[in-house]
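User: Teach me something about this protein's shape.
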Amino acid sequence: MNSPKIWLWLMLLALAVTSSAAQEMRFFRVAGPVAVTITGISAEGFVTWTNVPTNATFTVQTATDLAAGNWMDWVEVPVSSATTIHQIFDPNPLAGMVFIPAGSFTMGSNLDPISVEQPSHTVYVSAFYMDQYEVTKAKWDEVYQWATNHGYSFDYANSGQGKAANHPAHSMTWYDTVKWCNARSEKEGRTPAYYTSAAQTTVYRTGQVSVQNDWVKWDANGYRLPTEAEWEKAARGGVSGQRFPWGNTISHSQANYRSSWEGGAPYYPYDVNPTSGYHPAYNADDLPYTSPVGSFAPNGYGLYDMAGNMWEWCWDGYASGYYSNSPSSDPRGHASSSARVVRGGSWGVNAFGCRTAGRDGYYPTIRGFDGGLRCVRSAGQ
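Assistant: First, the predicted structure itself:
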């Protein structure tokens, strides 16, 4: 009989989640195969603990209310020594971005028999920052105008549409999202991530260039698209083994998607919405039926719209069998694929497409009413 986990828990006030209304108190505790001893907490969000075994995984959990006792997983930390120093939050995250702590998570899913999401496997992802919201039409236009005045060209003159300033931008190719990330970086005086060759000397600003993994300055302080692994880790928000960022079912109270019914009942049992069709709050006008960013509750990391509203371009080349031999640390996708990964579902797809493990590949020349983006930046820059 396996012995139960031994808990030693830690309480601290942290600005790990921010909102426009208030700062939220969070409590953290560390769980593992044996008890741990907390020996230090820094103002920058680093926690130091000691433990007897090595080569084990410890889980940092969080709660916003001790009385409620609703602890949730925050990050899994592989431990290879008797002393661990790990950053679990950032009290001063980058403006408009959320800190995602380094650690492991289970990527993929065995909940549904979908081969492209299997086998589920443990992946370690380095710390990074992610846009709290999908890139809005206002933000896209701001950077786009700067870019076209500073040597950038895009695939279409009207690349990046949107129903309103606070709705997500859409209808841009993968190539245009990559160039836009570079322009956003240069506009802010940051080092761009994407270049036209492995020499990493010419910034990618024009044309349709199939940028390769070794053409990317992964440690630059500029913006880039998330890798597929970064996206899924962030989307789960610390919640493991669930279909969606918040749990195992979905309804229109949680996301902007199309509820699909058949024979008078939802087609998918985990779609618990009481009515069929597009979200009634957003389908009164012309297509696309997007919702303003941040219209629904955030996930555990404070990220909005990680399910529904807009498919989001990722960096990775897409391959259906990639999980069978993908790297276990910071994977960056299939090297020779002609398609790029999209994640998260959209206003126009059903519950199945909005699952956190759900993945698909689009040709990088495609642009549509349901495709947008959000950016990431490497931590420590």
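Now, about its shape. The helical segments are 137-148, 174-187, 228-236. The longest helix spans residues 174-187. If you'd like, I can walk through any region in more detail.
User: That's plenty for now, thanks!
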